[in-house]
Amino acid sequence: MQNRRKKVRRIKMIRRILIVGLPVILIGGMGYFSLKDLASTNESAASGHFYNNSSYKDGDSEYDKDDDGKTKGDSSVAAQEEEITNNDDVVLDTTPDSLTVLVNKELRLPSDYIPADLVIPDVNFSISYYDEKKLMRKSAAQALKELFDAAADNGLDLCGVSAYRSYERQYEIFTNNVKTQGMGHTVKYSAIPGYSEHQTGLAIDISTKSANYRIDDSFADTDEYKWLKDNAHLYGFVIRYPEDKTSITGYSFEPWHIRYVGKALAKFLYENDMCLEEYYKFEPTEDYSQCINYDNLEDYGINPDDVKVPTKAPTKVPTPTPTETPTPSEEPSVTPTPSVTPTKKPGKDKPTVTVTPTPTEEVTQTPEVTPTEEITPTPDVTDGASDSGDGTSGANAQTP
Q1: Contacts of 5 (CB under 8 A, 6+ apart)
Q2: For residue 294, what are the contacts with CB-CB under 8 A and spacing of at least 6?
Q3: Structural domain that includes position 198
Q4: Which of 54, 235, 329, 344 could make an S-S bridge to 147, C-beta 3.0–4.6 Å?
């Protein structure tokens, strides 16, 4: 009987556990999977905002999609580009992801814009380690390899130096140049952060071994540049800042800076001797040289403190301790011993002369002269008379 009661109690306890515990387990499991899905969704959303923000694309832009709905910039699309015959109806392209976007000293990119398809081109670079400046957008990277291979087939050696540049990196470069080179020099060669073509991933600075891989005017004197300026357009690139377009582009001549725009547009610009500003009929609202100065840095997102040259604390110059100047000792004067005036001995007619030599001093050499000893005899004195007794009476006239 007791065993039966115990068995009934166990059954009731198990029922209570199942009734209370099972819903708790079900609710907990559902909550766990819901939170996991939510975290995954948030992670995808955050990643999409940072790398591929749809706000950077214009859905109606003729440069973003082709007739088949493919994104322009694919190698398959680049090969199918339609020939451009004129720029009569061209519309200014300011879409960051577009291959033909115009970026200059007035048209900027969002500070958080990062191209979604950055890759490292399969070409030689002046550095061997990884750096963001090796990156380019995929279509530009493929075209760059074709360009470099063609140069090599002609016995030329092109080398990549600096391609993609983030907003943060451009900020460092610009502010450092202002501090070290001054504003006037910097605005001729360095872009304001957000206004650099390098941020598009479509531009690259190149050089060659014969120019010591420098990016300066010396590259313009190389065989590589001479070939490049006549052949870059065949691979979709242009010399972005030509020598005769400085007033239009706002930058000094940069033979090393090339920009990928696609074969069709590159061919049109080359054959019509145009830069991108001319193609889009872009006219700046003000003189490029006056667009930025020390008074409006904050309008361009630059902290004025970042371009100030740090002032060095004045170096304390120790006051020299005065050195006591020794009092020169007086040279001892030499008192010449006077010659004894000859006296006439009593009872004799001829006087006896005793000559005492004068002490020798430092003698300045003079022509040798035979001294003549001239003796002036003392007048006759009476016997019993004498001189003063110190040997100094009378005349001592020894002359050289």
Answers
A1: none
A2: 183, 304, 307
A3: 64-307
A4: 235
